[in-house]
Amino acid sequence: MRDFWKRFARNKGAVIGLGILIAVVLLAALAPLLYPDSPWRMVQRPFLPPMEMDGFWFGTDTLGRDIGAGLAHGARISLLVGIVSTLVALSIGVTLGALAGYYGGLLDDALMRFTEFFQTIPNFALAIVLVAIFQPSITSIVMAIAIVSWPPVARLVRGEFLSLRSREFVQASVVIGQSNARIILTQVLPNTLSPVIVMASLMVATAILLESSLSFLGLGDPNHMSWGYMIGAARTVLRQAWWMSFFPGIAILLTVLALNLVGEGLNDALNPRLARKGR
Amino acid sequence: MTKGQRAIALAMAAAVTAAAGSALAEEPKRGGTANVVIQPEPPGLIMGLWQNAPTQMVAGNIYESLLKYDQELNPLPSLATEWEVNDDGTVYTFHLKDNVLWHDGEPMTADDVVFSVTDFLAETHPRLRVSLEHVENVEALDDHTVQFTLKQPFGPFMGIFEVGSMPITPKHIYEGTNFQDNPANNHPIGTGPFKFAEWERGSHIHLVRNEDYHVEGLPYLDEVYWHVIPDGASRAVAYENGDVDVLPGGSVENFDVARLSELPNTCITGGGWEYFSPMAWMWLNNREGPLADKRVRQAVLYSIDREFARDAIWNGLGEVPTGPVSSKVRFYEPDVPRYDYDPDKARELLEEAGYDGEEIRMLPLPYGETWQRWAEAVRQNMQEAGFNVSMEATDVGGWNQRLGDWDYDMAFTYLYQYGDPALGVTRNYISSNIAKGSQWNNVQGYEDERVDELADEGAVAFPDEKRQEIYSEMQKIIVEDAPIAWLLEIEFPTIYRCDMKDLIQTAIGVNDGFGDAWLDR
Amino acid sequence: MGRLSYITRRLVKGLFVLLAIVILNFFLIRAAPGDPAQVMAGEAGASDEMFIEQLQERFGLNRPLHEQLFIYVKGIVTLDMGWSYRQDQSVASLIGQRLPATLLLTGTAFCISLMFGVLMGALAAARVGKWTDSLITTVALIFYATPLFWIALMAILLFSVYLGWLPGFGMVSVGAGYTGLAYIGDILAHLVLPALTLGLFYTAVYARMTRASMLEVMEMDYVKTAKAKGVAPGRITRVHVLRNALLPVITLAGIQAGQMIGGAVLTETVFAWPGIGRLMFDALLQRDYNLLLGIFFVSSAMVVLFNLITDLVYTFVDPRIEVS
Fold first, then answer.
1. Which of C17, C261, C266 sits opposite A116 (nearest CB)?
2. Are C149 and A216 within 8 A, CB to CB?
3. Where in the numbering of this chain does the ABC transmembrane type-1 domain appear (chain A) (predicted)?
4. Cβ contact A125–C153 (<8 Å)
5. Residue B244 Cα, gap to closest chain C Cα (Å)
6. What global pTM score does this model have?
7. Are the C-beta atoms of residues B521 and B34 closer than 8 Å to each other?
8. A-chain residues within 8 Å CB-CB of B380?
């Protein structure tokens, strides 16, 4: 563990990223304390510019809602959607990839065709269609993001399984008659964890971008304040009120950046062989 | 008054002065081009086939009907110059102009009118179909006289001859053909002041002056370009840059209106919508859940700060309605119970009704930012008064289906009232109009026997004093029952260059406005 | 091994994938609430049962689903994408009108990002560990993390609203009626901001990938040998490293070329660019079945096509790859 941290900390960017990420998580966690009012509440006059009034450092929007409250509460949705959709995508991708890589043959063929199929459909377009069809809500957004982001996981895991499958320790387990399920879960899978974790951290970042893009197009969950929604709602008043789209954009940028930096740090720490090559 | 609203008030004052000035002395000038925004691109220009707003807006300058209406909804001559009604209000006779030509040169006669009403529109125009149920017979007495015989008196009958409601369509082109697939649909032929010239899809529609127009000297303009610009912000920019001269109501987001009205030579008016008198409201599902209780519905009305929404979202334009009939519609009754913003009262009513915080599903109208913001504001108002509201996002397809299936608790909408309660109001309150699959009938499921009776009587009563009495009683009952949460009598602002004179002259505004408009340049 | 038979096999496979996509989308879009008849009735301001039935009859929506599917697939096989009832035009002509705008936008963005990305990546790799490298890596990372639609808005705000240098909306000036060179110049001016913002993300991706892949190749034996032999470093980079390091970049370029249609939805929305991405979004919201399916068909076909091209380019660039 100490080794891990040492290797991670050697990457300065990763440490900065971790710092930002912790700050975002804290913001999300403390949102109800920092801004006890609902972020939808119309608390001041509309179009209040930032820094003009105490307590409204980020200004207000078209209806007089506090942008600061939106930023804090929006952090929760971004992180939630990012993490949950990644978990769902991982569970699909890892399962299919593991089955394909471990059993090979016809199953592998079939599963890989299936994966390719999903990679052929333009994926942002597919996400839009899925959310529109099932009507925007947290669940439909999470599912749509998961459905378009699992294929790379499946390919990665399959690759790892293919190479691990022929290793001695796996062959040994086969010889002593362990069940396939047991081998997959206890022998092979743990050895694929490192690259999967690295990939997951990047997927969370991508998922946050996807969620904000969907919300921007008006396909967000209307009951939850989100950063993408804030930018989308600010678009029509771009000329009158730059701050309405500026701050949430910065929030997305920092969060996604932080996750990428952390991902690189994890890569350095977990895959020491590959470290220092950059990604 | 905010800065933006002050700007709008100034621009509106400028519009009034400009109009008054022109009425005094100025001689209209001939020539010039009008560049106008059309949003969205219409699917077709055959007015009888397409009842959507963009088609009406363009094709209203190509087609005509028997009458026009001034901004107080009084009938004006158009294809008909004179008309008479018999004493019991069942036989209407119209005398048509005898010098009217179709754009292809054929003379327009009474036969065209009969064909349009009994053949063409009866098949293609669902809204007119409802009014035609009162009509027993339409016949051409001679080439220039048409007689409508009604089954019984129908109070609003003189109000159905607006061009969008009854566009006169050429018999010689459509008789005996499949109306929807007629190749002539690519090239509309009407009798109006402008002829169709060209339509480059995705770019513009070009209309040119009808040299043979039946009113001497009209129109003043040489041509009208309708520009298709599929984005609100770009439309605003196009006006700022001087690329277009007219932004018809609804073509820019409300949040842009204040900024645009500060531009030089810019006038703004809420006029020209009197015939439609659009009213926005929330359907409240009267059938089930907490909203089945009258007190809860009243609480909804008390909980909403409708003045705030008008000022913050609609630039202070429009009136907060007092009941089902817009104040711009005939037989409006102001003396009804009021639901002024009063969250405490709303809370009391909720308590009295035993509302237990059950979730209420709200559907915003999926027509852009304005409506989305409005729904958010109303949801916030209601939540602060103790309602548990959850908003469900839908797109146009989903919204239509869920309303048609009554699968909602509250839903935003706006409907036209067409100047008369019998045309555009009672359809939403009578129990015989409760049927799935339409977004225009009694969607909320309101039933009241007395209202049914009054609505029936009001439509056929004669003369108007009688109708007023009936409709006043009806409005009082409906307001008390609060079957719907009325939000705003919308005034869609038309933004235009002040040197475009006489643009908004009738109750349908730009829809037939270019026939009279002229440029003072 | 014949390259031709390889191409044929890939093509056939691609066609099957395409067919599967068409069928999947056919059912997906019909799973959405509401149908085109309802949407159009909703726009009409009044409707009754007769009206909806007339519309459904015209659109063929009253037939059983499998029959509709059969008719559609039969059409697609003969490259007939049907009729858009909402727009009252054939799907092919609608797509034909909008596709050039999207191709212009995505093509420009593609070239910009490929050029700058590879250049930045190569530069960073050549100066690995130096400040140039750090600068490029950081910039690339920031581009990578920036939401496309947001940077687009900020660009409009800065270059269009405050500085007034470039137009921020649309593809041509409305009603300007330019012809000839002025017309082309007008389009180019409108193209700058959307193409740059759309290209930004992929510039970052290419830069990162080129850098990583070059560093990897530099460690390889033949490069070390060349170094030991005293070949000039510039020549090593150009001849040995870059050529091999570009392989993964080519793969990515193939994927990107196909995916850009989807990404263009956002850019086209922000800049009001009259392309196919925006058309798709509108078709989706209006339940314009045929139009939506047509757009999906065309853009998936492009993905398949670009994948094929990528594979082919691969076989030329890297002789080690067998075409079997």
1. C17
2. yes
3. 75-263
4. no
5. 8
6. 0.88
7. no
8. 38, 40-42
Q: What do you get for the CA distance between the two ends of chain C, in Å?
A: 7
Residue C169 and residue C51 in one domain? no
For residue C122, the enclosing domain spans: 101-317
Do C29 and C118 lie in a common domain? no
Determine the residue of chain A that is closest to C162 in CA distance: A239
**C-alpha distances in angstroms, A62 versus B144, B249, B366?**
56, 20, 18
Q: With CB atoms and an 8 Å threshold, state whether C154 touches A245.
A: yes
The domain total for chain C is 2
Task: Report the distance separating Cα C87 and Cα B489, nearest Å.
Answer: 31
- pLDDT, tens only, C114-157: 999 999 998 998 888 888 888 998 999 999 899 988 998 899 88
C17, C265, C285 ranked by CB distance to A125: nearest = C265
**Is C286 found in the same domain as C164?**
yes
* Locus of tokens 């690259």: A195
Q: Which residues of A touch C259 (CB under 8 A)?
A: 122-124
- Please indicate, yes or no, whether residues C108 and C205 belong to a single structural domain of this protein: yes
Give contacts of B416 with chain C, Cβ < 8 Å. Answer: 45
Question: Does C92 reside within a domain?
Answer: no
Transcribe B274-341 into DSSP letters.
TTT--EEEEEE--SSSGGGSHHHHHHHHHH--HHHHHHHHSTT-SB--SSSS-TTSTT----S-----
Same domain, C254 and C119: yes
d(Cα B478, Cα B486) in Å, to the nearest integer? 11
Architecture of the domain delimited by B279-489: Roll (3.10)
Taking contacts as CB-CB distances below 8 angstroms, the residues of chain B near C161 are none
Instruction: Mark out chain C residues that contact chain B at CB-CB < 8 A.
Output: 32-36, 38-52, 58, 86-89, 97-98, 168-170, 173-176, 269, 272, 274, 278, 282, 284-287
Show residues of chain B in contact with C275, CB under 8 Å: none
Residue ranges of chain B with per-residue pLDDT less than 50: 21
Of B52, B233, B435, the CB nearest to C44: B52
For residue C242, the domain's CATH number is: 1.10.3720.10
- Between CA B186 and CA B178 the distance in angstroms is 14
pLDDT (mean) for C1-27: 81
Pick the CATH number of B67-175 from 3.40.50.2300, 3.90.76.10, 3.80.30.20, 3.90.550.10: 3.90.76.10
The whole-number pLDDT of residue C283 equals 87
Query: A2-35+69-270 in CATH: which number?
Result: 1.10.3720.10
Q: Mark whether C48 and C124 lie in a shared domain.
A: no
A141, containing H or E segment: helix A138-149
* Cα–Cα distance, C39 to B381 (Å, whole number): 30
Chains that touch A (3 or more CB pairs under 8 A): B, C
The answer to whether the Cβ–Cβ distance between A120 and C161 falls below 8 Å is: no
Q: Do B395 and A220 touch (CB under 8 A)?
A: no
Q: What number is the ipTM of this complex? A: 0.87
pLDDT value at position C130?
85
Q: Is residue C87 part of a domain?
A: no
Residues of chain B with Cβ-Cβ distance to A220 below 8 Å are: 393
In this structure, which amino acid lies at residue B75? P
DSSP codes of every residue in C234-251: HHIIIIIIIHHHHHHHHH
Cα–Cα distance, A72 to A28 (Å, whole number): 6
Facing A125 at nearest CB: one of C32, C150, C299: C299
pLDDT value of residue A67: 93
The boundaries of every CATH 3.90.76.10 domain in chain B are 67-175
CB pairs under 8 A between A and B: 64
Q: Exposed/middle/buried for B496, CB within 10 Å: 0-12, 13-18, 19+?
A: buried
* CATH architecture of the domain formed by B3-62+192-272+492-519: 3-Layer(aba) Sandwich (3.40)
Structure-token pair, residue B121: 């529109």
Instruction: Give the residue from C77, C109, C143 where a domain finishes.
Output: C77
